[in-house]
Amino acid sequence: MKLWVLVFINALAVALSLSIINFYFQGIIIDSVITFSVSLVTSYLVFYYLIERFVYSKIKLIYKLIHNLKLGKDLKDALGEYVSADPINDVEQEVKEWARDKKTEIDQLKQQEKFRREFLSNISHELKTPLFAIQGYIEVLQDGDIEDPELSKRFLEKASNNVDRLASFIKDLDAISKLESGEIPVQYEKFDLVELINEVNDSLELKSKKYNITLHFKDKYRTPTWVNADREKIRQVLVNLLGNSFKYGKNPGNTYIKTFQLHDQILVEITDDGIGIEEKYLPRLFERFYRTDKSRSRDIGGSGLGLAIVKHIIEAHEQTITVRSTENIGSTFGFTLARA
Ligand SMILES: Nc1ncnc2c1ncn2[C@@H]1O[C@H](COP(=O)(O)OP(=O)(O)OP(=O)(O)O)[C@@H](O)[C@H]1O
Ligand SMILES: [Mg+2]
Predict the structure, then answer these.
(1) Which spans are transmembrane here (predicted)?
(2) What range defines the domain where residue 154 resides?
């Protein structure tokens, strides 16, 4: 309600009361009309002055404060001072909006805080496990009680495996922090995807043998497929996805790599016939450190950064990555690349 309406209603009530009382005692209409008019004008002026002076101007001030606080310094400078025409209503509105904004902000901060806590605890866990193992093996070897050279060798090998695990974890962590901070931008170049896939397949031959997985990449793909992307980053994507297909594959098992020509994109699909992923895990699969219970319980030794890295790389290319999977049947990870 506008200020003048408020004041007018008040003044009207006073004027009416006075003129009615006047009419009751005097019984002269003209007297009452004069009383009504005079008291209406006087009380209107007095009320207006008092409310404006002692209530409205203070509310206006509060309104202005909240309004400017909400806008922030920069926006306020851009828009200049703004005073509402109806601060009583607006102040309520603005306070409500302001409270809502603050609540979302606080929720976000809490979420981030939770994220940071989890991140730290994940990191320390991933560092602790191999580090303590290494420490254990070294202590045993240092004691010098082991007569059997075979056993010493086995302990050294185990320590060395854990060093490798530690190194690969730090490498992944480094990669993900660089990707997230945008420190290493995508370096686009035109290259033959088929050649890259063959290169990666060759480099993973030993590893696939170790897991008893046969890699299938059909001959019909032997003609060049030109794409525009960051070759080294896409190599990392292929290595991570193929690595997963080995780790979570059956023994013996198969991994298929297929490419499809879309309108102005190439779709790459990597399919395995492994343990698969329960549907409930799919939405969170690409989060950092996320691992399904199955892979945790089998303790295959990943830290859950591989897919987060893959997603970052593909999104930095402004392309998409998808996954479909059926438990105990297998999984298919697909990503797109821009055709050159
Ligand atoms: N091909 C797949 N088949 C079944 N489960 C998979 C497959 N790929 C990924 N997963 C599940 O998704 C989780 C996350 O994968 P991601 O590659 O991010 O981590 P990781 O393989 O456990 O560790 P890292 O790749 O960092 O060594 C895995 O732990 C596994 O549970
Ligand atoms: Mg992985």
Answers:
(1) 29-51
(2) 115-181
Count the Cβ atoms, other than its own, within 10 Å of residue 322: 13
From the alpha carbon of 295, which atom of ligand 1 is closest?
31
Q: Which of 181, 203, 231 is the last residue of a domain?
A: 181
Section 300-314 average pLDDT: 89
Q: How far is the CA of 91 from the centre of ligand 2 (A)?
A: 54
Same domain, 318 and 292: yes
pLDDT in tens, 116-127: 999 899 999 889
Q: Two tokens at 156?
A: 């050294």
Instruction: Check pocket membership of 237 for ligand 1, CB cut-off 6 A.
Output: no
| CA 291 to ligand 1 center in whole angstroms | 6
Tell whether ligand 1 has an atom less than 6 A from the beta carbon of residue 331. Answer: yes
* pLDDT tens profile 33-90: 999 999 999 999 999 999 888 887 888 888 788 777 777 766 666 666 666 667 777 7
Is residue 208 within 8 Å of residue 244, measured between CB atoms? no
Evaluate: CB of 312 within 6 angstroms of ligand 1. no
Examine residue 218 and state whether it is found in any structural domain, yes or no: yes
User: Does a structural domain hold residue 58?
Assistant: yes
Do 64 and 120 belong to one domain? no
> What angle separates helix 57-79 from helix 87-143, to the nearest 10 degrees?
60
Ligand minimally distant from the alpha carbon of residue 321: 1
Domain's final residue, options 130, 162, 181: 181
**Whose alpha carbon is nearest atom 19 of ligand 1?**
304
- The answer to whether the CB of 330 is under 6 A from ligand 1 is no
Residue 288, domain CATH: 3.30.565.10
Residue 79 to residue 85: CA distance in whole angstroms = 16
**Could you tell me if the CB of 336 is within 6 A of ligand 1?**
no
CATH code for position 170: 1.10.287.130
Query: Same structural domain for residues 255 and 303?
Result: yes
Looking at per-residue pLDDT, the higher value among 53 and 238 belongs to 238
Q: What DSSP string runs through 255-287?
A: EEEEEEE-SSEEEEEEEE-SS---GGGGGGTTS
